[in-house]
Design brief:
There is one protein chain. By secondary structure, the chain is α+β, with helices and mostly antiparallel strands. The protein contains eleven helices and 37 strands. Strands 29-30-32-31-33-34-35-36-37 form a nine-stranded mixed β-sheet, sandwiched between helices. Strand 25 and strand 26 form a beta hairpin. The radius of gyration is 25 Å and the shape is globular. About 50% of the residues are buried.
């Protein structure tokens, strides 16, 4: 087969390592005093932490020493004397906390435990040498709150936790609030005084509000508690609650989307601005000086932008910018001088690459819901720029994970690779996706494989009807829940999709719920309420009916599966089970296992190798083009467990 886009052959092939390899730099930060810059960048091909004086980037030096697994994230200590970072082992999500002293370069583990997952519970503007952390080294289900001295590493127990899912603290590092799930599937919120949790909750939510209502932090004086709250309404609005009287004041609302992030005054903790993301993210300033800075940045930058980091005096911001048709760049914004200084471009090798625009579309479901979606057309297919191809092209339906998450507008490496290879790409916020109000989330309750899947099929029908894709050349692809949707698509609607790519997707919802990580136990009620309770006859029947494993024999189309051996969320057995069932039924399947990965790909060599396999797999069925495999698997840990013969170049 050949791709149906005549102009595709004239468009350069974007090398996959330009999209999935290490970025040149990422996660730029400014130190609290505004004197130092920091970022992640490769050192011996592994992402490590670098620092440089703000006025002398040429003096940059690497300060961390990771030699195998990339450092996923880091932050400056409140006093600016050190950098803190987190790391797990092989994707097991047992995340530990480490400190690097800026002056000496000395590194120490602040949480030297095994089988432990650390949480940052509280940080302070005025207490610079301590933070509060949660550790589940006593009981893997619950995080006890400890005070951590960042200089000495000393840990002091503050509150033993025997049943709570989360805590809120104030600027004096006092635990003020505890949260746990209630029998209704919602949450109860309890006041905490001198580390004693009250017996009765002062606020509660029902299940319908459980994903759209939560505390959003205290002002530094502790007099106001902010809430993102959907109780008595659909979308989550921002409220300020007087902690003495309980009186609530509406701060901001939007009728189409939940309020998202906030920008706070770093000295008082008051909300200065807030974001709303319906189809695109928009920031709204409450404080006029913040509004003036937003307006100035909007005048300087094209596309999307946002604030990544701020100095303590709030005079210097690190700002990211996604121009939408060029790689993401980062700038140093001096608010006093009114200057925007280039910091770095995340993937400079994409400068001048034939990146394709992402289009916003709203698709109607069969029962009248509006599904906010994002469409990228195949390269060379839309010669008049209308947002529709000149002729239908093969398409990949790319399904997000979660499912309680969402797709967003902006640069996507997967969208760009697939579009460059000759495919339209459609990402759909199906019911159950977050950000669009509680009614949209709750419409997905106990609808795995049912109405949630119908939304995806409706999106395919829309694309066919719009002339975007031919009926017989649509693939489905995704990770986590998107992997589940892929398996469900091939098993439940085998005539709709030409092939599927499943990345760490569950195949058996019964075993999925039986093997959730212990630190998710305080929240397990919500899984039962939204998916089905395996402890009831009705719930178990629902889970069995929605499990692709139980209909694996109906799969007739090519399937590629990728799995991390250390995945604590979707265990390897989820992929092993369905691969075994397909083998027993004589159905071809290609199975790639990564022994040093968890729930997705952390190592770029593994990510590049998988997408190399995926693009060649898709080319076999959909007829798009692909960069040859070559020796791409050699630096990775990929193990081809089954079906190498089904992907060109894999068996050789």
């Amino acid at each position: 087969m050949t791709a149906t886009t005549p102009a595709l052959g004239t468009i350069p092939l974007i090398p996959r390592d330009h999209l999935f390899g290490n970025p040149s730099k990422a996660q730029g930060r400014i130190s609290p005093d505004g004197e130092w810059l920091s970022w992640l960048a490769p050192h011996n091909d592994v992402m490590n932490i670098w620092i440089a004086p703000r006025n002398d980037l040429a003096a940059a030096k690497v300060i961390s020493k990771s030699t195998d697994r990339p450092i996923p994230s880091y932050l400056w200590s409140p006093d600016g004397t050190s950098i803190l970072y987190v790391q797990d082992k092989g994707g097991d999500e047992n995340i530990l906390l480490y400190r690097i002293d800026i002056a000496s370069g000395e590194e120490m583990s602040l949480t030297p435990f095994e089988n432990t997952r650390v949480q940052i519970v509280g940080v302070s503007e005025k207490i610079k040498d301590r933070v509060l952390v949660g550790l589940n080294n006593r009981d893997p289900q619950f995080h006890d709150v400890h005070s951590l001295n960042l200089t000495t590493g000393e840990l002091t127990l503050v509150l033993e936790n025997n049943g709570y899912a989360g805590f809120e603290t104030d600027d004096a590092l006092n635990v003020r609030l505890a949260m746990r799930q209630n029998e209704a599937g919602g949450a109860d919120y309890f006041r905490v005084t001198e580390n004693v949790i009250e017996d009765e909750p002062f606020e509660s939510t029902a299940m319908e509000d459980s994903m759209t209502t939560s505390p959003a932090g205290y002002t530094h004086d502790g007099q106001v508690l902010y809430w993102l709250d959907s109780r008595g309404r659909n979308t989550a609005a921002l409220y300020a609650q007087d902690t003495a009287t309980g009186k609530r004041t509406l701060v901001a609302e939007d009728d189409k989307a939940d309020l998202g992030g906030t920008l706070r005054d770093q000295k008082t903790g008051e909300v200065l601005a807030y974001s709303v993301n319906y189809l695109t993210t928009r920031w709204h300033a409450i404080d006029p000086t913040i509004g003036a800075s937003f307006d100035w940045l909007d005048a300087q930058l094209e596309g999307r932008s946002g604030v990544m980091s701020r100095s303590d005096d709030d005079r210097t911001w690190i700002v990211w910018n996604d121009p939408l048709n060029a790689p993401i760049s980062t700038y140093i914004y001096d608010r006093d001088a009114g200057t925007l200084t280039p910091f770095y471009t995340t993937r400079p090798e994409l400068e001048g690459a034939p990146l394709q625009p992402m289009h916003i579309v709203e698709i109607a479901s069969r029962d009248g819901l509006t599904l906010p979606s994002y469409l990228t057309l195949a390269a060379g297919s839309d010669t008049d720029g209308s947002g529709r191809p000149d002729a239908p092209t093969p398409m990949v339906l790319l399904v997000h994970g979660g499912p309680w998450a969402r797709d967003t507008y902006g640069f996507s490496s997967i969208h760009q690779m697939l579009a460059n290879r000759g495919y339209a790409v459609l990402s759909v916020n199906f019911r159950g996706s977050t950000g669009f109000g509680k009614d949209f989330i709750n419409a997905g309750n106990k609808q795995w494989g049912l109405a949630m899947h119908d939304d995806l099929i409706d999106a395919v029908e829309w694309a066919i009807g719009e002339g975007i894709a031919p009926r017989d050349q649509v693939a489905i692809m995704g990770g986590s829940y998107g992997g589940y949707a892929t398996l469900a698509g091939l098993a439940f609607t085998p005539d709709v999709f030409a092939c599927g790519v499943d990345i760490v997707g569950p195949s058996n919802l019964e075993t999925l719920l039986g093997t959730i990580p212990p630190y998710w136990a305080p929240m397990v009620k919500i899984f039962h309420e939204r998916m089905g309770n395996p402890g009831t006859e009705e719930g178990l029947a629902m889970l069995k009916a929605a499990s692709p494993l139980n209909k694996a024999g109906a799969i007739t189309k090519p399937l590629l599966i990728a799995q991390g051996a250390n995945d604590p969320r979707v265990k390897q057995d989820e992929s092993d089970q369905i691969v075994g069932a397909m083998k027993n039924a004589g159905i071809p399947v290609t199975y790639v296992l990564y022994p040093d990965e968890g729930h997705g790909f952390a190592k770029p060599d593994n990510s590049v190798s998988f997408f190399a396999i995926a693009e060649n797999f898709l080319a076999e069925t959909l007829g798009g083009r692909a960069e040859e495999l070559g020796d791409v698997l050699e630096p990775s840990t990929a193990q081809i467990v089954e079906g190498a013969e089904h992907v060109k170049g894999l068996a050789g």
